[in-house]
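User:
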Amino acid sequence: MQPSVESLVRLLESYRGRDKVIRTVCYGSQLVGGVLSRKAETDVSSHRLGKRLLLFSAQLSHCRTVLRLFDDLSMLAYSHSYGFGGREEDVGVRWISVLTNVADQLYYPCEHIAWAADAELIKVKSDKWWLFGTVLWGTSLLLGILRSLRVLLLLKKKLKRYERDGAGHSRSQLRRQMRGEVLSILSSMADLSNAIHWMPPGFLWAGRFPNWLVGLMGTISSLIGLIQMNAGHSNETDSTLSSPHSEE
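Assistant: Predicted structure:
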């Protein structure tokens, strides 16, 4: 079996890896489907294919929502192990991470209630619970961006210090970490643009993104996530600063 196929199989065997693959296919389908569905006047067959891809994307999104019904305990275990971030070197990073964990933890029950309401398992309106979830997700993304910016500032200061000391190995390690934080910022910004799109009309650009643009932003974020999973996780054990928890 080819190494690339073996890597894909290993990725699909893990829950997080499979979720990232489903996420990438979901947003990729929305991107292509959104582009094709705009060709209604010129190409009917492309329009129909685009609509089918959008339906496929919606089903994959629903699949991920159902799978997240079982994520509460793993998030709670992570939040408990992180605590108040006593192992962090920087107070700012510590409290941003704590607030991010709180937002992530609260996100799950909001999404579960919204899902249960849509499935008619409980008699409540789902709209406000989806909104609460979107606000919490956006808050988590914004905090993640602030955290990465703070970490980049700290890493830059350390890099200057190591350059004076001539520590070559440490400098290359710090540069890898800095590239990882930059990718995290780009990923979170792409997701945050979609989170704002799903807010109520009248808030910034809420509701103004066409399907293809939502798909593009999500695809960018998903591909970055796959790159980080493939290359970044191997460096987590020797990170100078603790890595943030990521859910979306």
